[in-house]
Design brief:
The structure is a homodimer of 353-residue chains.
Chain A: E1 3-8, H1 19-26, E2 31-37, H2 46-51, E3 58-60, H3 63-69, E4 76-79, H4 90-101, E5 105-108, H5 118-127, E6 131-133, E7 157-162, H6 169-182, E8 187-191, H7 194-198, E9 203-204, H8 215-230, E10 234-238, H9 252-257, E11 262-267, E12 273-274, E13 277-281, H10 285-294, E14 298-304, H11 311-325, E15 329-330, H12 332-335, H13 338-349
Parallel strand pairs in A: 1-2, 1-4, 2-3, 4-5, 5-6, 7-10, 7-11, 8-9, 8-10, 11-14, 14-15
Antiparallel strand pairs in A: 12-13
Helix pairs in contact in A: 4-5
């Protein structure tokens, strides 16, 4: 493990703006997460807030309380929120200065870099705190172009795409990899965002910080390296955004540049428009399936987020989507993904992937 | 004009690796192009090599001969080739050192930056030569996120996409803008590559150097600024790569993030596979039309590159594609794009764009 961590989500843990914090509370092989800071949720167990499962991760109102009160004293502090424009708002900045004074390692996945903030940088330098800006763009000379080496990759690729951003793609991908491993399938995940890295995936890239010309090459490189290093039965690729999200479409690279033939499509039947974009309605799922087919892949199953729906309404949506699409439809958080593992296993046996 | 320019295309002017040089010889409002350097084509007129039309741009074997022999003495030297990996090969580097010693402004659109080469940088600093690295990635703090402001843009957008890279998208886009203007339509071009900038387009970005998370925002920003500054009747967006090119798919941003409803699709019927990728055949055009429709736009017309075909075979391909697709099919270099201008004008009048 890289450290014992407290996750900062001031005023946000109950919102989907804290999706990095949520992922870290669900599980990380990189950091040992012991506490969350959010005054609005203080006094409760973070796991219980998330999905009713206690995980022994307490929420504290302040960083000082978290440092004093957590079961083990954190040596690392992780920014657990996504913010508009990837900027550091004043309330978060105050916490980061406090963490820097306390000499903690600070892990930041926002676009605004800690090292570019003179006061935080100086404070860290005085206290010996280490600043880790996960999203710092890497220099072009370190990046790979696409070469076609993907054709030599032995393990089939499955991409977990979604119909929108912040809809549960990473969580479904992680659940799927875990369930595959439990069932004896050697599955590896290619992370494509900062939270995936924070959760400990060994192969991947932070897609949105890569200079555009190198996105396909960096993806290919990650898949090729994963295949060579782990010889997995299956490579699960975490999707980003969605194919038609106007604020930043993504997905074509994950399909054509990675030679991906199968897709798990994450969807929130309770969501009518792209996240935060009321003038942009989500297109019908049938179209998404057709679009993915034009990129050379088949949707194997649809996985649902229950966002905004009662449990009964979610079950109803599951049933009607199954009838409409003729595809398996799952509720991963409610019923697990073992059915998906069985589907994947038989596709692998029949060499359909 | 930014300068009197000699374009470097050593050993390459007759190949499609010199597409930047070709664009500059066809026309630029930013640079006054007076000479090309390529020993393999020396002694001829660059325009005549390109399409049989003399343009008074002589090709010289060496830079020294170009500086001495061009009608007006160049003060600027432009890298006119695309190279594997965007690197500067030794033969080109020798020319660049010579240009730096001669005190010329050097404009470089390759990924490898002149300023990162100590010998070139020192030589330039001694002689007073200015180094312009067009493809230097801009810092994140200068970049825009997508905001949805595109909804306020008045001028309809038409994207010139292609079925592959290096297939003639930029040339068709430029011809279209020129023909619109001749016909009294105020058309503006959004450039998306370094050659478009070198040719003098006022609005745009070098898409492949943008950090991925900002691609849609920078595109939107360019379109919004163009609409406000020029109040054009029509905005023509230059495409990059192709929607399904495995080495770097591109196009979804140009459609969904820019609210583009019409596409001109550039195609080379003589090309069977993606450029330089014999294991990756080009998908059928019908699929490309369907794919573009799923992104909310209609293909208005297909425009053809005659690459690898005799003039008669190109005419035959034009006829059979028109029958297959039921769409207007044009040969822009051979017959001009006036028919496209008429189509656009009637679509504008009928408010179909």
């Amino acid at each position: 493990m890289d450290g014992i961590a407290v996750v900062l989500a001031p005023g946000a843990f109950r919102t989907d703006g804290a999706k990095t914090a949520h992922g870290l509370v669900r599980g990380s092989e990189r950091f040992d997460v012991v506490a969350v800071v959010d005054a609005d949720a203080a006094g409760q167990d973070a796991g219980e807030i998330l999905d009713g499962r206690r995980r022994g991760v307490a929420v504290f109102a302040t960083l000082a309380e978290a440092l004093a009160g957590a079961g083990r004293r954190p040596d690392t502090c992780i920014v657990g929120v996504a913010t508009p424009g990837g900027l550091i708002p004043p309330s978060l900045r105050a916490l980061l200065l406090e963490a820097a004074r306390a000499g903690l390692t600070i892990v930041n996945g926002l676009h605004q870099l800690l090292a570019d903030d003179p006061e935080i940088a100086q404070t860290a330098s005085r206290s010996g705190a280490r600043l880790v800006d996960v999203r710092r763009p890497r220099p072009v000379r370190e990046l790979h172009f696409w070469t076609g080496a993907i054709a030599s990759v032995r393990a089939p690729r499955v991409a977990v795409l979604g119909t929108d951003c912040a809809i549960g793609k990473r969580t479904t991908a992680r659940l799927l990899v875990e369930a595959c491993r439990t069932a004896g399938l050697r599955a590896e995940m290619i992370y494509t965002g900062q939270t995936g890295w924070m959760q400990g995936a060994r192969h991947g890239l932070i897609l949105d910080t890569v200079v555009n010309d190198f996105v396909s090459g960096e993806l290919e490189h990650a898949v090729v390296e994963c295949d060579r290093a782990e010889s997995p039965d299956l490579i699960v690729i975490e999707g980003q955004s969605s194919l038609r999200n106007p604020s930043g479409p993504c997905g074509a690279e994950l399909l054509v540049s990675c030679g991906t033939r199968a897709v798990i499509l994450q969807h929130a039947p309770g969501r009518a428009c792209f996240r935060g974009r009321e003038a942009w309605p989500l297109p019908p799922l049938e179209e998404e399936v057709a679009l993915i087919r034009l990129y050379g892949a088949e949707v194997m199953a649809v996985t649902l987020s229950g966002e905004g729906l009662t449990p009964a309404a979610l079950v109803q949506a599951q049933r009607s989507l199954h009838e409409r699409l003729g595809l398996p439809v799952l509720r991963p958080l409610e019923e697990g993904v073992e059915r998906l593992v069985r589907l994947l296993r038989s596709s692998l046996l029949e060499r359909k992937l």
